Description:
Helix content: 10-25%
Structural class: alpha+beta
Shape: globular
Number of helices: 3
Radius of gyration: 16 Å
Oligomer: single chain
Order of helices and strands: HHHEEEEE
Number of strands: 5
Amino acid sequence: MEDGPAYLTTVPTDPSAAKKWVYDRSRGGNPVDVQAFHTLGDTIREHVIPGASLAALFRAAAEIPGVDLTEGVTDLEGRPGIAVGQTYNTIRWELVFDAETFALLGERTLRDLDATWRPTGDKPTTPADLPPPPRTATSSTPTPTSPPP
């Protein structure tokens, strides 16, 4: 099978190589580690990726600075999973995966005032510099389990 708009077969199956693959393709205005996490999420959300490569991306995500893993989470549909997430400028973005298949169940964004991690090249931000919190504390986008009819 070749790469195309939906299928992505060029992602390495080795986690270290998959991490390098993500960083090599990261473009954007965020600090490099933040952008790498966003690129990884975009890649998983926008493509069908073979199982071994998807597992490598999941393991690579855990190696991106500032990213941590949370077990025992559920998505909005109540499906159990495992999340990898990163907090930057008081916004925590998490990708929720099925713990056995690594299938993306969904993603969620949370307000997080923990500013202990600072990406390389980032300028300091204090809570006083930030806008007031949004009215909604969390949002989440479930990923459908099957394609629409």
